[in-house]
Amino acid sequence: MKDKRFCVATAFYGISFNLTGFGLNIYLTQFAYSSIELPAKVAIYYLLDKIGRRRTEVGALLMTAACLGMNINGMGYNSFMARLGVAVAPFILLLDEVWKELPQVVLFSVAVLGGIVARALPETRNRCLPETIEDIESSGIEKSLEKSVEIK
């Protein structure tokens, strides 16, 4: 489940680094990119409240994958996976030497994988999330997570 950060970071930075790969003027592409990203960030606040974090993330990753297909808070492990995704993204773009559409196919696949992994996350809508280690220990979240892992 934590590997979704790898998928999110790889898809986001892969698209960001490949601005010239869309076949438009780099300034026009940057303008289009920002005109999509700014309203999306505003919409996230609304969607998180109305449909929840998991559905919002799954939808965003799958929508990213669909767009790429047409065009052919954490530290530690989560942060490492996100940074690994950022580091791998430029190398994915080098795959165009093998096949011109291969970078888009790889980014599409990573975004779909991230959407599938995010689908397994628990829903947090209308729930107060723990903010400290003491909150986690007192709420029994650790025990319920251990039980759910044992069951699966």
TrEMBL record:
The keyword Transmembrane helix applies. It comes from the Eukaryota. It is found in: Membrane. Gene3D superfamilies: MFS general substrate transporter like domains (1.20.1250.20). Coiled coil: none annotated. One of its GO terms (cellular component) is membrane. It is a multi-pass membrane protein. SUPFAM superfamilies: MFS general substrate transporter. Its main location: membrane. Keywords: Membrane, Transmembrane, Transmembrane helix. The chain crosses the membrane at residues 7-24, 60-82. This is Uncharacterized protein. It comes from Dissostichus mawsoni.
